[in-house]
Amino acid sequence: MDLQIETNCPTTWKFEYESDDPALDNLYEIAKRDQWNVSVDIDWEQDMREDSDVFGRAETGIARTEFFGKLSKTTQSDLLANIAAHTLSQFLHGEQGALLCCGQLVNSVPTVEGKLYAATQVMDEARHVEVFDRYLNKLDKSYPVSTALKKVLDAILAADSWQAKSVGMNILVESLAMGTFYNMMIQAEDPLLASIVKLTAQDEARHVNFGIISLMKEIPRMSEEDTAALEDFGLAAISILLGLGDEVGFERSQPFLDAGIDPDDLKNVFHPQIRDADITLLKSGSKQRSVVTEYMVPNLGKIGLLSDRIKPKYVEMGLI
Ligand SMILES: [Fe+2]
Ligand SMILES: [Fe+2]
Fold this sequence. Notes:
Blueprint: H1 22-33, H2 66-69, H3 73-108, H4 112-139, H5 147-158, H6 162-187, H7 191-218, H8 224-242, H9 254-258, H10 266-269, H11 272-275, H12 277-283, H13 291-302, H14 311-316
Helix pairs in contact: 1-4, 1-7, 3-4, 3-5, 3-6, 4-7, 5-6, 6-7, 6-8, 6-13
Bound molecules: fe (ii) ion (2 copies).
One fe (ii) ion (FE2) binds near residues 95, 98, 125, 128 and 204.
């Protein structure tokens, strides 16, 4: 795994210190006001009940499938614990990616108000790395970064413009995070996790807003060619994240193998019933939301990256 990423994104000075963006100034004020402390604002003493899952079964797609119903009670609990650790591990690694990316944004965004805001996000992401690491230690189980997640984070870190970094991180990865945290607030059975995702989701909403405010202003000033390149970058990033086209997506098998499920049965595990478990859940009246159609794609639209040129591709992939 590549641990060192090269980028040609320039670091810029700015000697005009006055801001001309009240929306970003306001977001900066909110970011300073709403800082929280992992050691103080989370009650780490609250314990999960012995017999409860991290995520409630009624709000977990896979737990509602026939496949799951046929597993032994122990395997069911182990599988759900592994899937929770796997998902939260990806968030931990994703938070580190966000931390590194925001450091780059402090350097590369051209305005002072953008640099100051991005600096608050650096601290937010440090806190998110800390909080998920601490929670995973409590679960006593963690997983390495998924190849697909590492690939998209590397592409964002290697991108040579702040605009591409912000589209990849603030608009796509953080919309995905914000939507998933919203769903996790509904899913979480462990009150400790519920309190963590609530605070983290508030920060992520700000980070998405940062991308929207800066890019809504920036993209109309860009050339047609540069805007098209940015649109293509967004489409490539979303394809990696969702495993569309030639992309393999996130590996999902390890939590099943670790729960003792026979590797030969894995083809059954990825039977459409399991693969589509979350979609089925959304259709069943759950209050959870689709992160793709309610967060990621609409936010691309807000910043003007869903032109008539690219929109048919999203329609073709079933994302619109
Ligand atoms: Fe974060
Ligand atoms: Fe974030």
